[in-house]
Amino acid sequence: MRVFFTGGAGKAGRHVVPYLVEQGHRVLNADLVKLNHPDVHDLRVDLTDAGQVYSALTSRAGYDELDGDKPGFDAVVHFAAIPAILHTPDAECFRVNTLSTYNVMEAALALGIRKVIFASSETTYGVCFAQGEVRPEYVPVDEEHPTVPHDSYAMSKVCNEATGRSFQARTGADIYGLRINNVIEPHEYAENFPAFMEDPSLRRRNIFAYIDARDLGHMVDRCLRTDGLGYEVFNVSNDDMSVGIGSSEVIERFYPGVEVRREMGETETFYANDKAKRMLGYQPKHSWREVLG
């Protein structure tokens, strides 16, 4: 497919874009920062400017397309965003993330692109960036869990989900939101996970979960290859927890009084990914245990 990818130079994008290229997709990176991948053209775009977004979505994917007809894009993958709170003032985080998402969706659908995949977040469940400790209403956390966040970043993601749902209702296109858990790059296992083994409480705000950046690429590819779902949101995580203790100890130490909705395996993630497996054929392959044993 021909994919217009926003934010390809970000922490997630710099792994997802090369994965998509390896799967045979043609990708244009629309970003304020260059990815510098040999097979991906970088187009500098301010996504908060609606005119720039419309123009970019009619662009070629590279200089090689100057000969012959100018093809359009088959799909948009929108990952660009202020990546968390405390990178900008809260109001700016909310403005950039919501306005850019509206502009991307409006332009893509107006230009006849029938698939939009956008990055939502684990933060929508209100745990990650809450002031003080907030526990899930139940575990494992699935897509039916309430999304009532306290912070500007997560608020922007909940608004973006409403924007996606509204555009899908208006157009009938496929719009899939990915509630991505904490993205982990391969080198971070050796660097960061020993501390998580020593102190599991460091992973409380991430619901003790994670998503390997390579498996996130697989998830995006499965979304590109799965048509006809309309509007859907999916949790994105790996199959196991990001701590060395078992699920029974996590429940006892961190989730006393929290409803446990089903029996859980001792290393099973508390951030349920069953829906993505069932509807998309998602099958994550990686684990920190391959590195640390």
From TrEMBL:
Domain NAD-dependent epimerase/dehydratase residues, every copy: 5-192
Protein name, entry field: Nucleoside-diphosphate-sugar epimerase
Pfam families reported in the protein's UniProt record: Epimerase
PANTHER family: NUCLEOSIDE-DIPHOSPHATE-SUGAR EPIMERASE, PUTATIVE-RELATED
The species this protein was found in: Wenxinia marina DSM 24838
